[in-house]
């Protein structure tokens, strides 16, 4: 169980949760800088260790060269982390298809991250090579003496291309796979144990990504390195005096060179994974923000009611669920604080129920086409005209680029001349940007073919993810309702919480019903456009639970919470009145107890 929450004798004279949260983020940013400096010094020291020197390795580790290497590594940590701090997000915003993800090329953060990771790869690679392979750090070499002809070092070119490619590929993969999304740990731990628990993930991710890049880079270098060498040498010949042909053999066939490539790749990816995981641990670590305010309850409610989803709102719900689970003194303060226009419990209850109702409304809007459009297969698909194809709801999916407008139907009784209204002045519409026009033109061109339409189809995993963009807040809202209602039997002195028991159970049961309907008939299985029956072929061989893992998590949490409430209030449930549509489902939970 977590330790007792610290309370300040005199809180700050503000209830702005986001302002207090930003102050804590600034302190944690400095904590990360200290952690990065220590990691950089440790890695630079490890580079210097050579067991053949015996005790003399101590003098080699404590040297000016180690300090310079540590400074380079710290800069390589700092640059990507600074951009991670600027571009991280907490809500999921996955595009509809892989082709739609190409819109990332038009975002400035994409190119900033590419440049940052290329610079970081260059610093890490140059530091490693300066300590382990100094002969490859020079761009030019003079095999016939300092007065002889100058040649381009092919090993230096190979390793330079390797650094640029490793940084660019990792930065692109970071945005493509939404690695900048901060995920909160399911188990609350101290910071040290949280970092230790991430070490296997760091090693696994680092090895996997390093091996994937190295094998493709080897193949590309085998084919393209001679061409790249002569092109670079010819370009440099216009700037400096240099021979344009290779003096030594191709470094592709050097085992030592490839050993350095593999080790430097592992080092780069390990450093980047450490940076990402440590950043996520520090910025998702639990914080007691409300206790630093002069009015903790009002400060907590202020954090819950932030209009725009942000990390501060996530921390507010995280703090609320920890209060509901582990801190009876703060729970009692929530129950007793009724000397306001609206009691604190009422405001907390409203925010939690609003989260569930909003998610339920969104899911119903997205799942509505599935109720009227059964899934058809390629064998049983009847020939239908364009007007007979059921259309999904306009709000069924974010930026659905497959959506086409149906042709307007001709009315049965066209208006006569006498009933025709007089024409009005045309409305001015804002001009469409040129980039948006070109993108729409390209989409319409691709959609003209069946192969292009199939390429634009929704992805199963990404589609299921975007349905539950704020999954973590939904889980915390459900847990908060369950724990606060259960604790109110012993701790609520006014009985205010028990009055909202029917509303809480009805909100939980309503969302549970919608989720179960989604699992039985997900909306994206019933969506098809010009390709018609090809929709079944896209999702036919996909594992069922993989498509709905977010829905299964929510269903399990809802069922556990409803069982928790009905078990605690089992003897008091007959005193409450529930809506008729929820009575039968509620009886299934109560009958289980009997």
TrEMBL record:
GO terms for molecular function: protein-macromolecule adaptor activity. Residues 363-375 have a biased composition (Polar residues). Residues 415-426 have a biased composition (Low complexity). It is a multi-pass membrane protein. The chain crosses the membrane at residues 32-58, 70-90, 110-131, 216-240, 252-270. InterPro entries: Nucleoporin_prot_Ndc1/Nup. It holds the Pfam family Ndc1_Nup. One of its GO terms (biological process) is mRNA transport. Belongs to the NDC1 family. PANTHER family: NUCLEOPORIN NDC1. This is Nucleoporin protein Ndc1-Nup.
């Amino acid at each position: 169980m977590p330790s007792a929450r610290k309370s300040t004798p005199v809180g700050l004279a503000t209830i702005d949760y986001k302002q207090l949260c930003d102050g804590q983020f600034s302190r944690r940013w400095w904590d990360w800088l200290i952690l990065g400096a220590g990691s950089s010094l440790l890695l630079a020291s490890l580079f210097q260790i050579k067991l053949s020197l015996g005790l003399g390795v101590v003098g080699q580790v404590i040297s000016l060269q180690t300090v310079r290497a540590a400074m380079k590594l710290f800069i390589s940590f700092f640059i990507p982390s600074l951009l991670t701090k600027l571009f991280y997000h907490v809500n999921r915003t996955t595009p509809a298809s892989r082709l739609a993800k190409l819109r990332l090329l038009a975002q400035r953060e994409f190119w900033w991250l590419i440049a940052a990771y290329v610079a970081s790869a260059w610093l890490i690679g140059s530091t490693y090579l300066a300590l382990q392979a100094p002969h490859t750090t020079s761009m030019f070499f003079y095999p016939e003496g300092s007065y002889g002809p100058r040649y381009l070092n092919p090993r230096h070119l190979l390793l330079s291309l390797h650094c640029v490619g490793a940084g660019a590929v990792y930065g692109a993969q970071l945005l493509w796979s939404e690695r900048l999304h901060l995920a909160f740990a399911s188990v609350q731990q101290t910071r040290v144990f949280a970092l230790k628990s991430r070490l296997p993930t760091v090693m696994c991710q680092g090895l996997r990504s390093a091996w994937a890049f190295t094998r493709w880079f080897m193949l590309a270098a085998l084919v393209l390195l001679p061409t790249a060498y002569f092109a670079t040498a010819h370009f440099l010949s216009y700037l400096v005096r240099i021979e344009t042909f290779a003096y030594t053999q191709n470094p592709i066939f050097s085992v030592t060179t490839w050993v350095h490539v593999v080790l430097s790749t592992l080092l780069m990816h390990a450093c980047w994974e450490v940076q990402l995981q440590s950043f996520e641990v520090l910025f998702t670590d639990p914080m007691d923000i409300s206790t630093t305010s002069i009015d903790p309850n009002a400060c907590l409610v202020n954090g819950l009611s932030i209009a725009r989803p942000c990390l501060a709102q996530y921390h507010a719900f995280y703090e609320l669920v920890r209060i509901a689970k582990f801190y009876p003194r703060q729970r009692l303060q929530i129950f007793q604080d009724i000397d306001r226009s609206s009691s604190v419990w009422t405001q907390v209850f409203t925010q939690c129920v609003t989260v569930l109702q909003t998610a339920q409304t969104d899911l119903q809007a997205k799942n509505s086409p599935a109720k009227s459009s059964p899934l058809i297969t390629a064998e049983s698909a009847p020939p239908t005209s364009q007007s007979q194809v059921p259309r999904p709801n306009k709000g069924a999916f974010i930026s659905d680029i497959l959506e086409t407008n149906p042709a307007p139907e001709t009315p049965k009784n066209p208006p006569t001349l006498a009933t025709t209204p007089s024409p009005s002045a045309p409305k001015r519409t804002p001009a469409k940007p040129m980039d948006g026009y070109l993108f729409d033109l390209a989409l319409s061109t691709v959609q003209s073919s069946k192969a292009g339409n199939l390429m634009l189809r929704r992805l199963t995993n990404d589609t299921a993810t975007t349905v539950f963009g704020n999954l973590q807040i939904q889980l915390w809202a459900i847990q908060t309702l369950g724990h606060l209602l259960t604790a109110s039997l012993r701790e609520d002195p006014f009985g205010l919480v028990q009055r909202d028991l029917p509303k809480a159970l009805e909100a939980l049961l309503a969302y549970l019903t919608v989720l179960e309907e989604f699992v039985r008939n997900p909306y994206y299985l019933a969506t098809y456009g010009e390709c018609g029956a090809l929709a079944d072929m896209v999702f036919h061989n996909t594992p069922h639970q993989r498509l709905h893992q977010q829905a299964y998590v929510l269903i399990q949490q809802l069922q556990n919470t409803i069982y928790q409430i009905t078990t605690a209030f089992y003897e008091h449930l007959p005193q409450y009145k529930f809506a008729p549509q929820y009575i039968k489902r509620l009886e299934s939970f109560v009958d289980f107890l009997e």
